């Protein structure tokens, strides 16, 4: 039995909460930069004693008429909200088979597959959505996220360009474009996207995090610290944000500040390992340092709220 709680939110699956550009997989805390795809609290679900069988959903309490499309979408959303991602994918696929011209179940399934780390299947699913509506913004953004998470940033540019034509002032789309630019080494272009996104959505955590990291990659540490420090030192800050600021301090050569920030989440031995790693990055040439961080960062991570 799955019961769906109420909350704010819209479609099933992942909102564009953001993708952090560079995950430091050697960190002992939450990765300093995270492909941060958020989760959403799903609204509009009614408490109902549905017994979920992804192969044969027959109805309430295992009896009654077959579930219709809207019921399947609600069941998929409830399964997703309850953490049963495999069931959610199966239910969304059944909904897609029932309404093959509808984009929503394909997008919901693709978003859930991303959370499961099944990037290739997600890509196929988003393409199925785009076969029915080649300009659907959620499918385009999802496809771009899938390419970024599967270490194929060069393939993300096409769906992002199409999406940009329709919604040039979407701050989360600007963030995705910025991430793709950063992966391509086009940091000035990326920073322009983040700046515009922050004009539209001030103090957004994911945009701020990506902006600070992009600045750090180009050696602009003072501005990177200035951008991230208010977020990382706020009472509501996350380990991800705090340890990213520690990384930037370390790259800047401010070992004392890096250590103070790192100790907020790590034990002494882990702090010392991280400080040594920051120092090793600092000794690299700028090009090698950027390459090292990008190569470490293109690792899929579980979805997180921003």
What is this entry, summarized?
The chain is 59% helix and 0% strand. The chain has helices at 69-81, 85-98, 104-115, 119-132, 137-149, 153-166, 171-183, 187-200, 205-217, 221-232, 239-252, 255-262, 268-282, 286-297.
Largest sheet: none
Q: In percent terms, what proportion of residues is strand?
A: under 5%
Low-pLDDT windows of residues: 1-61, 297-306
Radius of gyration: 21 Å
Q: How many beta-strand runs?
A: 0
Integer count of domains: 1
In CATH, the architecture is Alpha Horseshoe
The SS-based structural class is mainly alpha
* Anisotropy-based shape: elongated
Order of helices and strands: HHHHHHHHHHHHHH
Could you walk me through the main structural features you see in this protein, from its secondary elements to its overall organization?
It is a single chain. The chain has 306 residues and is an all-alpha fold. The chain has a single domain (69-297), classed as Serine Threonine Protein Phosphatase 5, Tetratricopeptide repeat (Alpha Horseshoe). The chain is 59% helix and 0% strand. The longest helix has 15 residues, at 268-282. It is elongated. The two termini are 30 Å apart. Residues 1-61 and 297-306 have low confidence and may be disordered.
């Amino acid at each position: 039995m799955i019961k769906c709680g109420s909350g704010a939110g819209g479609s099933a699956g992942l909102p564009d909460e953001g993708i952090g550009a560079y995950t430091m997989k050697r960190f002992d805390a939450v990765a300093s930069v995270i492909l941060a795809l958020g989760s959403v609290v799903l609204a509009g679900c009614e408490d109902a004693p549905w017994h979920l069988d992804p192969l044969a959903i027959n109805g309430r309490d295992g009896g009654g008429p077959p579930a219709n499309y809207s019921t399947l979408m609600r069941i998929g959303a409830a399964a997703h909200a309850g953490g049963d991602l495999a069931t959610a994918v199966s239910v969304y696929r059944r909904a897609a088979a029932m309404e093959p011209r509808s984009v929503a179940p394909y997008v919901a399934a693709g978003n859930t597959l991303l959370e499961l780390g099944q990037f290739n299947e997600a890509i196929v699913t988003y393409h199925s959505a785009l076969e029915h509506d080649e300009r659907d913004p959620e499918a385009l953004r999802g496809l771009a996220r899938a390419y970024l998470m599967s270490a194929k940033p060069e393939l993300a540019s096409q769906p992002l360009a199409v999406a940009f034509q329709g919604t040039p002032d979407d701050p989360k789309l600007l963030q995705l474009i910025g991430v793709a630019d950063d992966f391509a080494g086009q940091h000035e272009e990326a920073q322009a996207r983040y700046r515009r996104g922050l004009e539209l959505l001030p103090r957004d955590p994911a945009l701020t995090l990506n902006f600070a990291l992009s600045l750090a990659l180009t050696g602009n540490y003072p501005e990177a610290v200035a951008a991230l420090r208010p977020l990382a030192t706020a009472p509501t800050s996350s380990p991800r944000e705090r340890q990213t600021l520690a990384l930037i301090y370390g790259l800047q050569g401010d070992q004392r500040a890096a250590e103070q920030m790192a100790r907020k989440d790590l034990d002494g031995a882990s702090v010392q390992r991280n400080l040594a790693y920051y120092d090793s990055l600092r000794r690299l040439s700028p090009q090698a340092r950027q390459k090292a961080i990008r190569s470490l960062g293109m690792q899929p991570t579980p979805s997180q709220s921003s």
